[in-house]
Amino acid sequence: MGTIVCQSCGTIIEHFESNQVKTLYGVCSCDCRPSEKQEQE
């Protein structure tokens, strides 16, 4: 079984079937990281 984890806040986004135990990193839809607009200003 594998797990997808948010790289910003560490929240588990989803579990998926896999022959090996894996942890993949993605970005969740919460506001846990600064938006791109704030970074550009």
From TrEMBL:
Organism: Brevibacillus thermoruber
Name of the protein described by the UniProt record: GapA-binding peptide SR1P
Pfam families: SR1P
